[in-house]
Amino acid sequence: MPDPVRVLALKARTAHVQGIDTDGVRLWVTSVERATRKGFLQEFAVSDGSLQRTVELQDGDRYHPGGIAAAENSIWIPVAEYRKESSAVIQRRNQRTLALEFQFPVGDHIGCLAVTPQFLIGGNWDSRDFYVWDHQGKLVRKAPSTTANGYQDLKHRDGQLVACR
Fold this sequence. Notes:
Elements (H helix, E strand, L loop, with lengths): L15 E7 L3 E8 L4 E8 L5 E7 L6 E2 L3 E3 L2 E7 L7 E7 L5 E7 L3 E6 L3 E6 L4 E6 L4 E6 L8 E5 L2 E5 L1
Antiparallel strand pairs: 1-2, 2-3, 3-4, 5-7, 6-7, 7-8, 8-9, 10-11, 11-12, 12-13, 14-15
């Protein structure tokens, strides 16, 4: 396994980290605090790890953010109930302000998300199923996983889907 290119110490407390993404200047982190039923999106400066801003993520009983994907000027975040086979919303937030711009409901717990130029790809709890939506939230297809791997974060890079556990 190659050595890390860089280790960035974050200069603020995070809850249980769920997903990360960066544009090289900013690092976004989602985390969940089960005891208080709160989810968070935090933005850190890549230059020094300082906390720039924090917003709470929740939609009714949904407070469990998952793996996230930054694309163009947006950050896409699944926010689900904290239980298997539940429900979620997929949120699109502004990278500059972290304000909610758009969201759509999903009838399953979505725990990871990747953004391609045309689609959103999400995996449910333990990644047993994968969903593909257009950027307006219309379901294109649902497919069962061909492995037993449960993924926490997905990324779309150079035409490939990259997943981590």
